[in-house]
Amino acid sequence: MSDIELMGAPGSPYTRKMLALMRYRHIAYKVRWQTVRMDDETFSKDRPKPKVPLLPTYYLPDEKGEIQAVTDSSPILRRFEDEFEGRSVIPSDAVLAFLNWLMEDYGDEWLTKSMFHYRWHYEADIKKAGSVLPRWGNLTGSDADIEPVSKFISERQISRLSYVGSNEVTKETIENSFMRFLTLLNAHLQTAPYLFGARPSSADFAIYGQLTQLAVFDPTSSAIVTAQFPRIYAWVELMEDLSGLSVAEDGSDWLDASAGLPDTLLGLIGEMAELYIPYLKVNAEAVMSGAELVDAELDGRPYQQNPFTYQAKCLQWIGEQYTALSDDDKTRLAELTHDIGLVEALS
Ligand SMILES: N[C@@H](CCC(=O)N[C@@H](CS)C(=O)NCC(=O)O)C(=O)O
């Protein structure tokens, strides 16, 4: 198979998620960094445009062998599970695979609220992102060339905060949830190097992707991580390249759930039950009723954001994954997560 081609950016958490995943899985790739002059270049002239322009954009063959532009990291990484053998990132136990789905979704869709919030709320972060992001796309551009692009990117991203849900009402909820998440992940990393044992899952890569920004790039959040959670900072840099990690192809290095789940993992899943799933539900209700605003109480505080159609689909997909579990697996999931009420939260 020829190398997988994609376009991305260093400041895109989903690009970083997928690059690290491909390195771990030994999938040969060619990444093209997005540039401001992309449209003038042969690279992009010869290639189809994605329906929704998101990063990373992959150029992959469809059933007829014609190259299409595709986005959305989670289905793409599942496609790679079918197309590339070995070093799977989906736990072989169906119950763990379900929990992994949920945690990958949390990383992609909830942790990204922290990412967006820290980057575009605080002055120091806006300044850094505003000056570095445009230069990733135009390294040799003069300061005069960069200036309007910097203004354009910052204004556009700040205007998107309403969809992400970062505002004065939600600031504390997002920041409290980020601190709880760091505390829980830090505790878990003292028991195992990855969420589901001795090998990384797609949820590890999703969380890593957001943390490449939160823990390393954005000044306000990275100061918190470095000072209070140096283990997480270290984890992020190790996750970047796991090409040399030995993996047991019989799956024996996945967590063995027969004796229960580690308390530290349950702590993290508790965040899904108490905060993420309730958020997905209030968002889906707002989308379905055509409301102009998600206006609810989350985590004991008022919560407001613009309804987000894609995240209503996320809830539907989680429901479908749950329904697809066998009766035995549903029972096992309920027993394993009894103390944190996950199944009740899902119903
Ligand atoms: N669910 C998508 C999300 C990708 C995404 O949101 N990418 C962002 C960059 S990190 C983007 O391209 N945004 C374009 C924009 O905001 O206009 C995935 O998993 O790949």
Model description:
With 347 residues, the chain is an alpha+beta fold. It folds into two domains: 4-83, 3-Layer(aba) Sandwich (Glutaredoxin); 94-346, Glutathione S-transferase Yfyf (Class Pi), Chain A, domain 2, CATH 1.20.1050.10. It contains 15 helices and six strands. The chain has helices spanning 13-25, 42-45, 73-83, 94-121, 123-136, 143-159, 161-164, 171-188, 202-217, 219-228, 230-239, 263-289, 309-323, 327-336, 342-346; strands spanning 4-8, 29-33, 57-61, 67-70, 294-298, 301-305. The strands form two sheets. It has a four-stranded mixed beta sheet, with helices on one face. It has a two-stranded antiparallel ribbon with strand order 5-6. The longest helix has 28 residues, at 94-121. The model has no long low-confidence stretch (mean pLDDT 95). The structure holds glutathione. The site of glutathione has 10 residues, from α1 and α3. Glutathione is lined by residues 12-14, 54-55, 71-74, 108.
